[in-house]
Amino acid sequence: xxxxxxxxxxxxxxxxxxxxxxxxxxxxxxxxxxxxxxxxxxxxxxxxxxxxxxxxxxxxxxxxxxxxxxxxxxxxxxxxxxxxxxxxxxxxxxxxxxxxxxxxxxxxxxxxxxxxxxxxxxxxxxxxxxxxxxxxxxxxxxxxxxxxxxxxxxxxxxxxxxxxxxxxxxxxxxxxxxxxxxxxxxxxxxxxxxxxxxxxxxxxxxxxxxxxxxxxxxxxxxxxxxxxxxxxxxxxxxxxxxxxxxxxxxxxxxx
Amino acid sequence: xxxxxxxxxxxxxxxxxxxxxxxxxxxxxxxxxxxxxxxxxxxxxxxxxxxxxxxxxxxxxxxxxxxxxxxxxxxxxxxxxxxxxxxxxxxxxxxxxxxxxxxxxxxxxxxxxxxxxxxxxxxxxxxxxxxxxxxxxxxxxxxxxxxxxxxxxxxxxxxxxxxxxxxxxxxxxxxxxxxxxxxxxxxxxxxxxxxxxxxxxxxxxxxxxxxxxxxxxxxxxxxxxxxxxxxxxxxxxxxxxxxxxxxxxxxxxxxxxxxxxxxxxxxxxxxxxxxxxxxxxxxxxxxxxxxxxxxxxxxxxxxxxxxxxx
Lengths: 255, 310
What we know:
The complex is a heterodimer of chains A (255) and B (310). Chain A contains 9 helices and 12 strands.
């Protein structure tokens, strides 16, 4: 059976200096699963997400993305870091959407979406442009291909960012608080796009404060605090009947 | 006249609606004094300069377009352009080396920048001119073979070569710092976005970092260019017949020192003014973070109201 679109982590540890931000995290995400990670700021949810994309490296533990050891290859005694080229190859299979969109301001929306296929995969420009227009249409931005990021609203920028990640045909999409920098009016349009994506069977890991999205779209939910996974389970179940007191306290504040 | 409903409109004193009266800026006594004093000083200097016969303005006029001066000016322009070009290219390489993750490479660039920024350009110029004292013969060859050519450094290091090398190497150190400053102005998020797409280091540099660093690099480079134009006058100590040296050659013969220095200074001033116009245009162009108009703006039709930039 293919392991594409799965994430498997066992006893992941990560510390910045003296501060341990991830403490023995176990994680199993199946293909097509939508997993929401919630928790207070500084609980390590973003760090966990960034590790899955290789923006941070884990200190120890097993991390398999799409069935392969991510960023490292295993020998009898140790994990050895992969060459930048191989790491880049693995990264192309994992899309990342940032809180601050991080679109390239020197490129138009279309060029942003084309960046992956043309600059990384060295694909044909005309085909990439056609595909980019299709992707922009799929996030509801048909007419905005020639616009620069500065001319788009936050919600539009974030949708372009999603299209940019999708252009690489990733098996997994990671969302790092995708709606936190948006004004409330524009949150819906981004969540709609994400919901569409979930329906199409994309494996998604979403760090979010949108409990409504978690309840309606997510399959599983993880509540993190102080670098630990405090509670996990079926999204609706956890949100409705949290078992741990810490989770209860958190949900009481945000719901 | 606009009919206002405020009570003030009824209190017309001399027929003017108080709501329409201009609001005047306060002028202090100091401002008037400053006007008078500065005007007097300026006028005094102007009168003195124009009436003092020792300035010999006729001599200045005579030599302003003199053949030797013009060819000196041409050499100055050549030296400026050439050393800026070489310096910028080398500076770019140094800036990339300086931000390398590999320690020895970053350190090498660091040492270079420290050395060349930490010593006077004049000393560096004289040093390169006299490099033959250290290495009289340079042998270029392939190691472990007999294939080699000996180069006589003394012959190679003509004054102009030494000037070009000295100015370029010095400029490279300054340009490296300017370019590195531009690199660090590019947000961390941009680099992460490029990384998460799997972009290679070189592509990231070419397509993401350099285009975004340009707005802060270009104006500073323009400044360096103007500075370099005047810095070339140092080269006169090597006997290169650039603008200043050409003037010196003439007054060594005619003893009209001040008029010829004025000629040279006027040319430096003219060129600086000519250069500062495109410089200010560049600054204006790049002070905007990115274009506010869509590419192919005419073709784009905004249909939705939310298409208007926030």
